[in-house]
Amino acid sequence: MHFPALSLALLTCAGTTLAAANTTRPYSTWMASSFLSKGQAINNHYVASVIHEGIQKAATLHNDSSLLAYASNAVSSIVSSNGTLKGWNSTFYTLDDIRIGNNMLYFWDAEGRKEKKYEIAAKGLREQLNRWPRTPSGGFWHRAPIYKNQMWLDGIYMADTFYATYVSYFEPTNITAWDDIALQFDLIEEHCRNHTSNLLQHGYSEDKAAVWADPVTGASPHVWDRAVGWYFVALVEVLQVYPADLPGYSRLHEYLTTLADGLKRAQDVSGGWWLVMDEPYPGMKGNYIESSATAMFTYAYLKGIRIGLLEASYKDVALKAWDLMLDDFVQYETNGTLSWTGTVEVGSLSGNATYEYYVGVKKALNDGKGAGPFMYAATEIELAQGL
Ligand SMILES: *[C@@H]1O[C@H](CO)[C@@H](O)[C@H](O)[C@H]1NC(C)=O
Ligand SMILES: *[C@@H]1O[C@H](CO)[C@@H](O)[C@H](O)[C@H]1NC(C)=O
Ligand SMILES: *[C@@H]1O[C@H](CO)[C@@H](O)[C@H](O)[C@H]1NC(C)=O
Ligand SMILES: *[C@@H]1O[C@H](CO)[C@@H](O)[C@H](O)[C@H]1NC(C)=O
Ligand SMILES: *[C@@H]1O[C@H](CO)[C@@H](O)[C@H](O)[C@H]1NC(C)=O
Ligand SMILES: *[C@@H]1O[C@H](CO)[C@@H](O)[C@H](O)[C@H]1NC(C)=O
Ligand SMILES: *[C@@H]1O[C@H](CO)[C@@H](O)[C@H](O)[C@H]1NC(C)=O
Ligand SMILES: *[C@@H]1O[C@H](CO)[C@@H](O)[C@H](O)[C@H]1NC(C)=O
């Protein structure tokens, strides 16, 4: 790290643009098995969903039957044979609790199993969306009643990726549903997008009742990296299943490509991205390069390229971020496991949403909101490299 010219030369000799020392052991399954050794539990909370999705992606790519059995059994353990999802409250409306639906749909589809209990549980979540409290323009409230009339970028990942995947399996010709999914993104774009930087503010308050709401757009004041990370990933995941012949498709695709441009321009020379991304905050006292969003952006760029949504030229952006993650965010423990550092615990619009608030939140070790996306990114790097 102190001799960038030398390390670049070494990497070039090894015939790869990536850190070459550990290529015999894929980082995806390495981080996944490290997490198993830490004994984390599953429930219907989105952080558990993300960790288990990371494990499942790593296991599937490397055909690791014991890791895959772990992920499959974990998801199965929270769905009763009659299709009741443990911990789910059908009258509590928080978008965070919808994300687990993606884990269920994965194992519903995997190996053609079509297990009825997953279909029933997923249908429960789908029907809950039909009852969801909405803003006057039709956006899902982030959480009721506390975040009334608010949409956050995070919520798009939590709910609309499930909504789209479910509809692609069970209601593929439901145009009303496809339009409704695109509307969620349209509303975020209308209120949160900065057309100069091409980045998006964290969220907006449609009735402008939140203390932080911009008097014109209702937007919150700052661009928070993890919210943008969830949103970038959501665009890739939703476009993967969205019918290309519907008008919503080209709008979503434009949202993705313009954000890809904004993120490339916002990338720090280190390869990572700042916690608070809007000018003039990058580099300011208290701000730092944050690991969860760096992992999410890397994943979404690589997957977006792989499935033909983004130009291949963005690969350099992702590879630079990947190198940073291996150097700075992956921690090599003496017992051979990996830990994950540098992830901010939370970023919420429940308070004043000021710069001081965001940079005042602590970082956590082995936070699944960062380690899960690192596993996602690692699977894409390994796919790209044929590892
Ligand atoms: C490879 O892994 C070892 C621990 O097994 C670690 O010390 C080393 O820094 C890693 N190297 C790279 C380039 O990631
Ligand atoms: C390996 O070391 C880390 C860090 O000390 C620890 O958290 C983890 O539980 C250890 N894992 C095993 C399998 O001993
Ligand atoms: C995956 O591993 C199993 C055994 O664990 C083997 O039967 C199967 O052929 C492998 N599949 C692929 C695609 O490598
Ligand atoms: C489904 O099974 C769970 C756990 O076995 C039980 O608590 C619940 O009452 C059952 N629900 C229905 C509708 O049968
Ligand atoms: C479900 O959520 C509603 C709304 O927040 C709440 O009033 C109710 O007590 C919750 N039910 C359970 C069983 O927790
Ligand atoms: C189609 O989607 C709309 C909006 O989500 C929903 O209200 C309706 O029940 C769905 N129709 C069918 C047949 O599933
Ligand atoms: C939009 O981004 C530009 C460039 O970073 C910045 O100068 C401007 O203040 C931003 N606008 C808002 C409303 O945040
Ligand atoms: C905003 O909240 C943070 C704590 O979350 C506090 O430190 C800061 O002083 C508050 N700023 C304003 C302007 O109220």
TrEMBL record:
| One Pfam family it belongs to | Glyco_hydro_88
Q: Which InterPro entries match?
A: 6-hairpin_glycosidase_sf (IPR008928), 6hp_glycosidase-like_sf (IPR012341), Glyco_hydro_88 (IPR010905), PolySaccharide_Degr_Enz (IPR052043)
Segment forming the signal sequence: 1-19
Coiled coil region boundaries: none
Q: Which UniProt keywords apply?
A: Hydrolase, Signal
Give the Gene3D superfamilies listed for this entry: 1.50.10.10
Superkingdom of the organism of origin: Eukaryota
GO MF, one example: hydrolase activity
Determine if Signal is one of this entry's keywords.
yes
BP GO terms, sorted: carbohydrate metabolic process
Protein name, entry field: Glycoside hydrolase family 105 protein
Q: What is the lineage of its organism?
A: Eukaryota, Fungi, Dikarya, Ascomycota, Pezizomycotina
